[in-house]
Amino acid sequence: MRMNKLAQSLLGALGLCAAATLGFAVAAWADSPPVEHLKLIKVSARRFIFSPANITLKKGETVDIELSTEDVLMGFSVPDMQARSDIPPGQVMHVKLTPQKTGTFEFLCDVFCGSGHENMNGTITVVD
Ligand SMILES: [Cu+2]
Is the pTM of this model over 0.85? Predict the structure, then answer.
């Protein structure tokens, strides 16, 4: 378990380094408590909807996206922010986002979950 945590931390740090060069700071982790000082945004997935489907974030403000699924294995992916996580049933997952650019960015399910999966998406609007 100890090594597992260490490996997760290292992977997270690598992810942060890679993301920093792309203008976004991103990390994903699983089965850990929310980071208390971060704004928590709960996103629930079910075939074939994310709720909420529209999220507004502030540029430069780090948030903790808490992910869960009501039915089958889902994915949460924000390609423009180099962020993604699986969402296994019965688990709560977390993705940390610090958007560095204003605009509207798509998020989507990237784990095939049935007919309708192709339209399972939402938007993140980043404002100043
Ligand atoms: Cu899907």
Answer: no
